[in-house]
Amino acid sequence: MSGSRRDGDEAALDSLVVLVAENLGYSCTRVPGDVMLLEGAGRLHVGMRNLRQLARLVPRDDWPAVVADHVTTIITAIEEPLDLSDFSLARHLLRTRVYPAEADNGMLAARPFAPGLIEVVVVDTPTTVRTVTREEMAAWPAPMNELFALGRDGVHSDGPLQRELHEVDGMPVHLLHGWTFYAATHLAWLEQYLELGTRGALVAVPNRSTVIAFPLGQDVGPGAALRAAAGLKEHTRAAYEEGPGSLSPALFWWRDGDLALLETRGEGADIVLPGEFLAAMAGAQ
After folding, report:
1. Is residue 108 within 8 Å of 151, Cβ to Cβ?
2. Which of 51, 166, 248, 255 has the fewest CB atoms within 10 Å, counting from its CB?
3. For residues 232 and 202, is the Cβ–Cβ distance under 8 A?
């Protein structure tokens, strides 16, 4: 897409957000971080990056409806907050959702998930997904670890992701995906989807609906791991940019449920992987 076309599309979406916000009684101002600040009965933020990603999925004629639904859902969650005082009812709505670490404002019921990512307790209703605050969590008769366990159980009980096998630069790569905000949470039980040995897998979570995985079986040596990492890095970057719900362009090394950042240098065939990782690939031949 040309620069002028892209700028025109961004301006059109900005104007639609302003129009919808003003119709709902909110002023609208662009602030740093590619965000629209809405102020009225409440004060809230609309992330324009995610909205642009949503808009790319539909014809331009449908943009007004997409923007209206997106902004109205956010405002409704602020103006008509759920009554979470009855934990016996709220517990069945709990899920855990993965967000970029910068989403943590210090008030969320959140814990680290992976480098650059956090896991947040949310309440999932038919119309919206709302994050839970630490203050709300403290009022419930359950410790934090139990709430995160309930949230993960909720995601698991919603059903599995779809699994497809793709080739990336000639390497077999598994794509786990679904129409869900919680795909990344499924990394907590990745071994239920794939046969994984002690060396684990290369994984990526480019957006809220996608997990990319390459199992590191005993037949995967340093060369194959290098080719897989190079292909996954490029594929992950593209899926991260496409969205919607971008999470991370990074690669991770999954081992027994733990996620370590796989720091890389270079581009494409010149990618360089950490010595510890390559040693593990060579040592288990």
Report:
1. no
2. 166
3. yes
Cα atoms in the 13 Å half-sphere on the side-chain side of 85: 2
Cβ of 219: how many Cβ atoms within 10 Å?
Answer: 7
For the whole model, what pTM was predicted?
Answer: 0.80
Contact 132, 121 (CB under 8 A): yes
Q: How far is CA 221 from CA 13, 25, 215, 224, 283, in A?
A: 48, 60, 12, 5, 9
Q: Give the containing element (helix H, strand E) for 46.
A: strand 43-47
Q: φ and ψ at 123, to 5 degrees?
A: -110, 125
What count of other Cβ atoms lies within 10 Å of the Cβ of residue 146? 12
Helix (H/G/I), strand (E/B), else coil: 137:
helix
Distant-in-sequence, close-in-space partners of 105: CB < 8 Å, separation ≥ 6: none
Per-residue model confidence as pLDDT tens for the chain (285 residues) = 555 666 778 888 888 989 988 888 888 888 877 888 888 877 777 888 888 888 888 888 888 888 888 888 777 766 666 677 788 888 899 999 999 998 887 888 999 999 999 999 998 877 778 888 898 888 899 999 999 999 999 999 999 999 999 887 778 899 999 989 999 999 999 999 999 888 889 999 999 999 999 998 878 888 888 888 888 988 899 999 888 889 999 999 998 888 989 877 655 546 777 778 878 888 654
Number of CB atoms found within 10 A of residue 209's CB = 21
Name the amino acid, one letter, at 155: V
